[in-house]
Design goal:
- The structure is a single chain.
- The chain is built from two helices and five strands, in the order ββαβαββ.
- By secondary structure, the protein is of the alpha+beta class.
Length: 107
């Protein structure tokens, strides 16, 4: 994401992984290192990054699952991810998941 000075103010890394489950090919997208320049925090940059990621996944990988890890005490990040439809992973502490086909956060 760029501001008017063409400086990077936020970014995220995305890793695509495919695997076979029950003889079906599954896609998992892992979001890592979501970061926003400190002088631009609390201005919706991370929200827009997550929306762009989710829209890209909806368009190109409609059956994918998106996962990310965050510290359980990173309340601001967890609140953001929850507003975007991510839920706590049932067995892995700190991991959150979002499935396109279960999406209730259409933006």
């Amino acid at each position: 994401h760029l501001d008017i000075t063409n400086s990077v103010i936020g970014a995220a890394d995305i890793h695509l992984r495919s695997f076979e489950r029950d003889t079906l090919l599954q896609m998992e997208i892992e979001v890592k290192n979501v970061r926003v320049d400190p002088s631009f925090r609390r201005q919706g940059v991370a929200t827009r990054l997550m929306e762009k990621i989710q829209n890209h996944v909806r368009e190109h990988y409609p059956s994918a699952q998106v996962c990310l890890d965050t510290d359980v005490d990173n309340f601001a990040a967890r609140a953001l991810y929850q507003t975007k439809g991510f839920q706590d992973h049932p067995t892995e502490t700190g991991k959150m998941i979002w499935k396109v086909d279960d999406d209730s956060s259409l933006s």
